[in-house]
């Protein structure tokens, strides 16, 4: 297998670059790794004109099984270098149908891990979600391209940091080892159904418990009051959990 680390950052040896290098170094022997520092290339959009640089980069993407997309968080989003690279690649990431819809292109079913770093502390990031914007952009592009996510890693608190904390180094090493060892099929469908079932079971239980708690004030023997209050409580819980899953799901610490 080949793991390609793609670094879109102002500094090659900054914290993001160091995290990426640690991950690549941990990839078990017998597998190939390569680090691509985007600033080394003069990347121009894919057009009808010859574009040997982009062509060479596309070949590297094609020959790799797993991509590590590493970009620091700049202005609450993905770094410009990484965004520019993904923008230029668009016609190679997705095919466009006649009606303008896009479908995954030739990289469908490859795998990626996203990695970012930021100045603000883990606690600040936990509450403000400063790095969510970075992950969201990467996820949006990769999901359009049909590339399957294997995980995400964040290093917050780089302001004043001298060396990367040991536990983050260990995390990078763990990911480096895991990237090539697991069966990388997207077999999450069953897992998602099980999660959905458990979510509904727990929410129904909480809803019924809350209804029970309001038994004194709610005439629950009336079918419509019983049904209406169940729907209302269930909806509030569902909205809350969906908000959590869609807004708060990214790694922040
Ligand atoms: C242009 C620019 C914008 C930045 N915006 C943010 C930001 O919005 N939030 C944040 O926490 N850090 C921000 N930072 C700090 C970087 O994310 C942080 O220093 C990161 O660890 C740099 O990675 P590096 O060491 O790999 O260069 C910004 C840095 C630059 C240069």
UniProtKB/TrEMBL annotation:
Keywords: Flavoprotein, FMN, Membrane, Transmembrane, Transmembrane helix
GO molecular function list: oxidoreductase activity
Coiled-coil region list: none
Domain NADPH-dependent FMN reductase-like per the UniProt entry, residue ranges: 1-95
Listed InterPro entries: Flavoprotein-like_sf, FMN_Rdtase-like_dom, ISF_SsuE-like
Keyword tRNA processing in annotation: no
Protein name, as recorded: NADPH-dependent FMN reductase
Pfam families: FMN_red
Highest taxon above the source species: Bacteria
Lineage of the species this protein comes from: Bacteria, Bacillati, Bacillota, Bacilli, Lactobacillales
Parts of the chain that traverse the membrane: 193-214, 226-247
Keyword Membrane listed: yes
SUPFAM superfamilies cross-referenced by the UniProt entry: Flavoproteins
């Amino acid at each position: 297998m080949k793991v390609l680390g793609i670094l879109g950052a102002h500094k090659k040896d900054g914290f993001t670059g160091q995290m990426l290098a640690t991950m690549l170094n941990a990839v078990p022997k017998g597998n190939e790794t390569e680090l691509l520092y985007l600033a080394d290339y003069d990347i121009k959009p894919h057009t009808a004109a010859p574009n040997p640089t982009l062509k060479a980069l596309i070949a590297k993407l094609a020959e790799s099984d797993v991509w590590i997309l590493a970009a620091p968080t700049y202005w609450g989003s993905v770094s410009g270098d990484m965004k520019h690279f993904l923008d230029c690649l668009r016609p190679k990431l997705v095919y466009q149908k006649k009606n303008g819809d896009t479908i995954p292109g030739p990289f469908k079913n490859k795998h990626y891990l996203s990695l970012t770093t930021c100045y603000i502390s883990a606690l600040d990031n936990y509450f403000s979600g400063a790095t969510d914007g970075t992950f969201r952009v990467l996820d949006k592009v990769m999901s359009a391209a049909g590339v399957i996510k294997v995980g995400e890693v964040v290093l917050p608190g780089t302001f004043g940091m001298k060396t990367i904390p040991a536990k983050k180094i260990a995390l990078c090493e763990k990911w480096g080892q895991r990237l090539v060892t697991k069966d990388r099929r997207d077999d999450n469908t069953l897992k998602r159904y099980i999660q959905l079932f458990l979510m509904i079971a727990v929410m129904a239980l909480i809803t019924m418990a809350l209804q029970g708690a309001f038994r004194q004030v709610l005439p629950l023997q009336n079918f419509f009051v019983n049904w209406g209050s169940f729907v209302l409580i269930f909806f509030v819980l569902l909205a809350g959990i969906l908000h959590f899953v869609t807004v708060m799901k990214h790694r922040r610490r």
